[in-house]
């Protein structure tokens, strides 16, 4: 789970988010959740989110 600000930037990510995505909290903060659809992972990765 993530919480974003009005601009859509991540303000909070729970431990499961960091576990599933591989992003640390520090890496996720300030990013837009679209970073998850970057195409650098196989389709199965995104399907499991």
Can you summarize this structure?
This protein is α+β, with helices and mostly antiparallel strands and 49 residues long. It has helices at 15-21, 25-28, 43-48, and strands at 2-4, 10-13.
Describe the structure.
This protein has 49 residues and is α+β, with helices and mostly antiparallel strands. It has one domain. It is 35% helix and 14% strand. The chain is built from three helices and two strands, in the order ββααα. A hairpin with a 5-residue loop joins strand 1 and strand 2. It is globular and about 30 Å long. The mean pLDDT is 87.
Structural class: alpha+beta
Overall body shape: globular
If you compute it from the alpha carbons, what radius of gyration comes out, rounded to the nearest whole angstrom?
10 Å
List the quaternary state of the chains.
Answer: single chain
Percent in strands: 5-15%
Low-confidence stretches: none
Count of structural domains: 1
Total beta strand runs: 2
